[in-house]
Amino acid sequence: MKLELDHADLPTIRDLTLLHNYRGVIEALQGRKPFYLKEAPKIQRAAYFLTLGSAHSKIGEYKQADECFDSALSATPKPYKIKLEMIESYIQRGELYKAGKCLVELSENTSIYQSGYCRRFHLLMGSYFKVTGDYAAAHESYVVANNLDRKTEKTASRDVSLMEEFLESTDLRTYNTMGMLEYANYLRHIDFKENPQTRLSLIFLQNCMPSVKAIDDKLQCLTALSRLSLAFKDLAAAVEYNKQALALDANHAQSLATRIRLMFATGKENEAMDFYQKDLDIIKEDPRATLALAKAMSFAGRHDISLNLATELLSRANLPKETSKSAKALINSIYSIKCGEQPASTAQVYERI
Fold first, then answer.
1. How far apart are CA 344 and CA 326, in angstroms?
2. DSSP code of residue 234
3. CA–CA separation, 55 vs 65, rounded Å?
4. pLDDT band at 68 (very low <50, low <70, confident <90, very high)
5. Are the beta carbons of 231 and 188 closer than 8 angstroms?
């Protein structure tokens, strides 16, 4: 018997899940609790708690998720699917020690490699290694998953390509946290698309911080936490994270740019401009910090300064693709504001600068 819900519940739960309506999943299943606890076979009871746990995890209710996962494990001797859901949840919340421990436990049972869960196991292994900064191991896991994909219509080729980009990266300053920050950005899109109150991206990075050891990596994470807090309109937290970063390195370019942005956000425009004059040379040594400063100036209505910074940035050789793309988008935005129109192409951007 498969680890799945009663057939009467499957269509509703599948539809809600496809819509990412995880609160709806929880509400729909709560009304079915008496059936699953008293009448359903144990395997369906396990599926009930597994589905609830996954839904709670998706919306950041991790305590409830863990309680459901524990109940699911106690109801079935077949833990693979439950363990994989738990690993995904641990990675999402940044509890990397727990995720790694579960992965080791599964890998020691060789039958996982002959099961129908082998592909997902390797994908999660890849996600874990990516977030922890072991990009060679992540690449290897994604390659295995991609090879297994040949039997299905799914593909892990994008993950393979991404890890190849990471391995070829010369940006050693953020090398160990590239995967972590990329995953936080993925969660940020979920936050703002579905429910900003969940703050999955913030929870993830906050929980990851204890495992970050190198100073440069800590600086990257603190800067990301400061900017995320600002995006969630938590100015006090944003300022505190920025102070922690500058306490580690008073000349960290990205943190200096973030401080100027925070000064504008808290209404301290004169102080912001004083810091701009004082820290500009340091900030301009880092392309991403320069872009962050250009965005801060645009936010504050200082469009001429913003345009000059973005224009100078695009003139640099070997500019990272994402930085170049963002600089062009910023220039488009500024011209839209200043001229009431938007350049239609990249070529027009270059014509105007």
1. 15
2. -
3. 8
4. very high
5. yes
